[in-house]
UniProtKB/TrEMBL annotation:
<dbReference type="GO" id="GO:0000701">
    <property type="term" value="F:purine-specific mismatch base pair DNA N-glycosylase activity"/>
</dbReference>
<keyword id="KW-0326">Glycosidase</keyword>
<dbReference type="InterPro" id="IPR023170">
    <property type="entry name" value="HhH_base_excis_C"/>
</dbReference>
<dbReference type="InterPro" id="IPR005760">
    <property type="entry name" value="A/G_AdeGlyc_MutY"/>
</dbReference>
<dbReference type="InterPro" id="IPR015797">
    <property type="entry name" value="NUDIX_hydrolase-like_dom_sf"/>
</dbReference>
<keyword id="KW-0411">Iron-sulfur</keyword>
<dbReference type="InterPro" id="IPR011257">
    <property type="entry name" value="DNA_glycosylase"/>
</dbReference>
<comment type="function">
    <text>Adenine glycosylase active on G-A mispairs. MutY also corrects error-prone DNA synthesis past GO lesions which are due to the oxidatively damaged form of guanine: 7,8-dihydro-8-oxoguanine (8-oxo-dGTP).</text>
</comment>
<keyword id="KW-0234">DNA repair</keyword>
<dbReference type="GO" id="GO:0032357">
    <property type="term" value="F:oxidized purine DNA binding"/>
</dbReference>
<dbReference type="GO" id="GO:0006284">
    <property type="term" value="P:base-excision repair"/>
</dbReference>
<dbReference type="InterPro" id="IPR003265">
    <property type="entry name" value="HhH-GPD_domain"/>
</dbReference>
<dbReference type="GO" id="GO:0051539">
    <property type="term" value="F:4 iron, 4 sulfur cluster binding"/>
</dbReference>
<dbReference type="Pfam" id="PF14815">
    <property type="entry name" value="NUDIX_4"/>
</dbReference>
<keyword id="KW-0378">Hydrolase</keyword>
<dbReference type="Pfam" id="PF00633">
    <property type="entry name" value="HHH"/>
</dbReference>
<dbReference type="InterPro" id="IPR029119">
    <property type="entry name" value="MutY_C"/>
</dbReference>
Length: 349
């Protein structure tokens, strides 16, 4: 059976109607690919539509304030994608006169763009014969060809890229790339793939060897680090609160959060009160302290698990630089903070 022809034929019948498939505009293709990194289509689609609506051209995106871009990205996670998106937009507008690079070699030089994204843009927008390899492609190829090389190893990345490059239809690279990704997303799914109705089931090696559930192989990653976060939610009698901008590298860079005290283990009111005695934000002010959530909220990131408590601190006034509670929704915040703001309902304060 011809793998390439079968995949393309399957795609012609089963492809989803998605807005980025209706265009070859490199700005919109790039935008969609950055949004869909580590994000499912159903979650990413509303963000894509919001970005295209607010920033219909790369010039609009480049001229937007970073805080506005981060706010629009809020809830999508992996915020470095948004920062890189904005940085690259400014680079293309200011250094390349708004002309998007048109070859894989030049596209991959852009900040935040790796092999997969560069291949997708080069093939879809400029018909370059360069194969994409994402999670869906890894899964489909590893199963069909019974490949046990770990997909998150240097050897695996090279092996699968070579194989995909051999399989790509040189006359229609864009169609093939989109077809194999769609096939992995809809047909050769991670769990409970529909092998019975798969057009490749008579020649799939993993199916014949009953190894579907064992592939693809992935090396175990380091265990996620456990951290204890205590956010201080200040509320003053005149309707003010405190938000701090996270500076430097790390999670949530340039996003806003409530003042944070990180502890080695879960803390209680007595210990926290003692810690707050010397806190510069309180500066000997009288305050009331209340724990909002009795059980820590566990927020799981790829490399760390945050066990989080929100402490409500009621004071007469705030001496530090504060903001009106009415403006709290104007600031870009991590989803963990956003969820708290929604559940706490500051409007009732």
């Amino acid at each position: 059976m011809n793998f390439t022809r079968t995949i393309i034929h399957w795609y012609s019948i089963n492809k989803r109607s998605l807005p980025w498939r209706e265009t070859q505009n490199p700005y919109k293709i790039w935008l969609s690919e950055i949004i869909l990194q580590q994000t499912q289509v159903k979650q990413g689609l509303p963000y894509y539509e919001a970005f295209v609506s607010k920033y219909p051209t790369i010039f609009k995106l480049a001229n937007a304030p970073e805080s506005e871009v981060l706010k629009l990205w809020q809830g999508l996670g992996y915020y470095s994608r948004a920062r890189n998106l904005h940085t690259t937009a400014k680079y293309i507008v200011n250094e390349l006169q708004g002309e998007f690079p048109n070859t894989y070699k030049d596209i991959i030089k852009l900040k935040g763009v790796g092999d997969y994204t560069a291949s997708a843009i080069a093939s879809i927008c400029f018909n370059e014969v360069t194969a994409v390899v994402d999670g869906n492609v890894y899964r489909a190829l590893s199963r069909y060809f019974n490949i046990n090389t770990p997909i998150n190893s240097t050897k695996g990345a090279k092996e699968f890229k070579i194989l995909a490059q051999e399989l790509i239809d040189k006359t229609q690279p864009a169609t093939f790339n989109q077809a194999i990704m769609e096939f992995g997303a809809k047909q050769c799914k991670p769990k409970n793939p529909n092998c019975q109705n798969c057009p490749l089931n008579t020649s799939c090696l993993a199916l014949s060897k009953q190894k579907i559930d064992q592939l693809p192989v992935k090396l175990k990653t380091a265990k996620a680090q456990k951290k204890h976060f205590n956010f201080l939610v200040f509320i003053s009698n005149d309707g003010k609160t405190l938000l701090e901008k996270r500076e430097g590298k790390g999670i949530w860079q340039n996003l806003y959060q409530f003042p944070l005290i990180e502890t080695e283990k879960s803390t209680n009111e007595k210990i926290l009160r003692n810690t707050l005695k010397n806190n510069v934000l309180l500066n000997n002010l009288k305050f009331e302290l209340t724990l909002y959530n009795s059980k820590p909220i566990v927020h799981k990131l790829s490399h760390q698990h945050l066990y989080t408590k929100f402490w409500i601190i009621t004071v007469e006034n705030i001496n530090a630089e504060s903001i009106s509670i009415k403006d709290i929704n104007h600031y870009p915040v991590p989803i963990l903070i956003e969820n708290f703001i929604e559940s706490f309902n500051f409007d009732l304060v």
